Amino acid sequence: MHIKQELTERHVLTLTVDNEAGTLARIAGMFTSRGYNIDSLTVADISEDHTTSRITIVTRGPPPVIDQIIAQCERLIPVHKVTDLTEAGPHVERELALVKVRGTGDQRVEAMRLADIYRARVIDATVNSFIFEITGGPDKIDTFVALMREVGLVEVGRTGIVGLMRGAEGS
Amino acid sequence: MSEDFIVPEKSGAEILIDTLIEQGVDTVFGYPGGAVLPIYDALFQHKKIRHVLVRHEAGAAHAAEGYARSTGKPGVVLVTSGPGATNAVTGIADAFMDSIPLIVLTGQVATNLIGSDAFQEADTVGITRHCSKHNYLVKDPADLASTVREAFAIATKGRPGPVVIDIPKNVQVATTSTHVKRATSSRFNPAGEADYAEINRAVELLANAKAPILYTGGGIINSGSDASAALRELAELCGAPVTSTLMGLGAYPASGDAWLGMLGMHGTYEANMAMNQCDVMLCLGARFDDRVTGRLDAFSPDSIKIHIDIDRSSINKTVRVDLPIVADVGAAIRQMIEVWKGRKYKAAALDDWWARIKGWRAVDCLSYPGSTQEIMPQYAIERLFAATKDKSPIITTEVGQHQMWAAQHFHFDAPNKWLTSGGLGTMGYGLPAAVGAQMGNPDALVIDIAGEASIQMNIQEMATATQYRLPVKVFILNNEWMGMVRQWQELTYESRFSESYSDSLPDFVALAEAYGWKGIRCSDPAKLDDAIAEMLAYDGPVMFDCRVHKTSNCFPMIPSGAAHTDMILHSDEVSGTMDDEAKALV
Prior knowledge:
The complex is a heterodimer.
Chain A lengths: L8 E10 L4 H11 L6 E6 L6 E10 L1 H13 L3 E6 H4 L2 E12 L3 H12 L3 E6 L2 E8 L1 H13 L2 E6 L3 E4 L6
Chain B lengths: L4 E7 H11 L4 E4 L6 H8 L5 E4 L3 H15 L3 E5 L3 H16 L3 E7 L15 H5 L5 E4 L6 H13 L5 E7 H5 L1 E5 L16 H12 L4 E5 L1 H5 L2 H14 L3 E3 L14 E4 L6 H9 L2 E5 L5 H4 L10 E6 L13 E4 L2 H14 L8 H11 L15 H12 L5 E4 L3 H9 L8 E2 L10 H11 L5 E6 L10 H6 L5 E6 L4 H10 L15 H7 L3 E5 L5 H10 L4 E6 L32 H4 L3
Parallel strand pairs in B: 2-3, 2-4, 4-5, 5-7, 6-7, 9-10, 9-12, 10-11, 12-13, 13-14, 15-16, 15-17, 17-18, 18-20, 19-20
Antiparallel strand pairs in B: 1-8
C-alpha cells in the first residue's frame, strides 16, 4: 500500500478576526491539526480601536478541502468573516521582501542593475553590500530572489502575501 | 470597547460563583486542588450550587456530559490546574466530538507565574484549544462575568460543545468593582431557521421520492425534545423509513412503524441496504461519519442527498450533497412540515419501497445463536430491556462490543435516554456519565451497560455514587476479553489475539461490596431474569457481573473499507484476513 497524493489548487484567504490572545494560534493550529497546508500567513491589527485583525493565508488543497478549510475557519469563535480571494474574482496580491546581497566590482553593478529593472529600492548600502526592498506578486519576488542568488545573495526576509479585491467594494 | 459598569467589590471567585448561579447552574462536578482553592472556598459559602466530588477529573468531565445529555442543560466541571486540567482533557475532547455543552472551569497558576514551569502548571488553553469549541484564559477578575456569560452562550447555542475557562489563582483572589462588558454582538450568531427556498426544494424532493429515507443523528437530540416531536410528525407525513446514527437513538421511537434500526458499521441490514438503495436521502443533524458511510465511493451511489445541519463545516466534509441547508434541524423540520401541509402534499405511494425493505428485514440480521448453557450477550441485553422498558430508563455505555449490542438490542422511544461516547469512543465514559445522569434525574432508573474491560477505566467513580447515594446500576457483560479488539483481531489478523485478554480481573461482586454497593453475579441464562429483577429491586447502586459467552462477535458488521452492501451477517462469513488498505482504516 502507498500513500496517495492529490492534485491541489492555491487559494488566498482573508480572515477578519478578533484581535485577542490566542486567535492566531487557534487558526494556525487548526490548519495543523486538520492537516491543511499554509504557504504563507500574515496578520496585523487593522482597526482604529485595535479590536480587529486581518489575516491573509495562502493555502493549497483540492477544491473540496479548500471549501472545508473555509468552513472550519468560520466555525472558530473569533473569526468573523472569511473571504476566498481566489474564488471571489479579480484581486491584487502583494508581498514585500528585503534582500541582502554582498559583492564588489561587476557583481555589485549587476545586482544594482537588476534591482533597477525590478524596481527594488536600496534601503541600506555599504561598500560591499546592499539591502533591497521589493514589493510585488510572489512570482516577481521569487524571480528577483533567484537572480540575486547569482550575484551574491546573503539572506532574504519576506512578509508573506496580503491581498484585496479589485474595485470599489470591500470583501 | 464598550462601557464598563460598577458593581460592589468582589473577588474573582465570588464573581464566578455569582455568575454560575445567574446562569442557572445548580450542579458542578469537580475535584479540588491548589489552584482552585479560592473557588472552593467561595463554593463552601454558597449553598445554591451542589458540588459533586468525583474521584478522578476524567470522571468529572464524563459525569458533566452525562448530566448534560440527559437533562439538556450544560454540564459544569471544576478542576485544578496542571494534572486536574490534563485529566479532564479526554472528557473535553469527548464532548467536542459528540457536541455536548460543557463549561469546564480550570484553575491556573497565578498570572505572574505563567510560563515559568511553576508547580502544577500546564498550558491548559494550549492543550484544549483544538478539542474545545472555544477557550479562555481570564487575566482580570473584571473580565470574569462577561467571559462566563459568553461561554454559556457558546457552549449551548449552535452546535453545542465544551468551553474551557482557565482562571489563574490570583484572578480568583483579586477583587474588583468593575465588570468589563464584552463587545460580542457579532461574533457568535448560530444558524436558526432555514431559507424557505431551500426548504421548498427539500420538501419537493421528499414528496416526489420513490425510495426516500430519513437519516437522523444526534443533532436532533441537541436541538431539543421539540425537534424529536417534529421528526415523528415529518416521518408520519412523508411515510419514509427512518434510521439513525448511534448518537441519534431515541429521537425517533424504536417502536415506531418506520423505524429501521441503527445504521452503519454495526447497524441493521435493512437500514444499510435502504441507505444504499434510496433515491432521496434526507440527513437531519448527522455528519456522515466514517462508521456510518463505510467505503465512501460506494456510499448510497444513486441518491439525491439533502443535508440539514447547524454546522456548515459538517456539510460536504466527506460526502458531497446535492442540497445543503445550514439551519437548526428542529426549526428546519418544522418548516418542512409547514410547507408540506401548506402545499397539501400527500405521502407518495411507497409500497414498492416498503416491500423491498420488508425483504431486507426478513434477513433478521440481529438474530444470534441461542444457548441454554451460557448467557449470550445479546440475550442479556434483550432481557435487561424487557425488564426495564416500562421504567423509561436512562442507559449509558462504555465503548466496545457491549455498546454496539446495547445499541442493537436495547430500544429507545424517547430522546435523552441514551448516553454513549460515539465520536471519540472513550472507554470509561459510562460509569461517570451514569453518575451525572442520576444527579440530573434523581428519580430515573440509570443503568450503565458496560464491559469488564471498559468499566475498569473509571471504576473509581463507584465511590462517587456511594457518597451521593446514587442508585446507579452497572450491568457488565463480562466475556473476559476486550471484545471489540478481540473481534477485529479475529477478523483482520487471523486470530492473533495480541494483548486483548482481560487478565487478572477483579472479583466484581467483592469489589461492589468493598465500595458499599450490592454485587450480583449471574452466568446461568435460566436465572438471568431473576437476577435482573433483584438488581432492579435494590434501592442503591448495584454492580451486576453478567458472565456471558466469551467469544461472541458483534454482527452484523460492515468491515472497514467495505460498502454497505458487503455486510458480514454471521461469523461463518469471516475470512480472517484483510488487505493493507482495509487494515489502515480504524
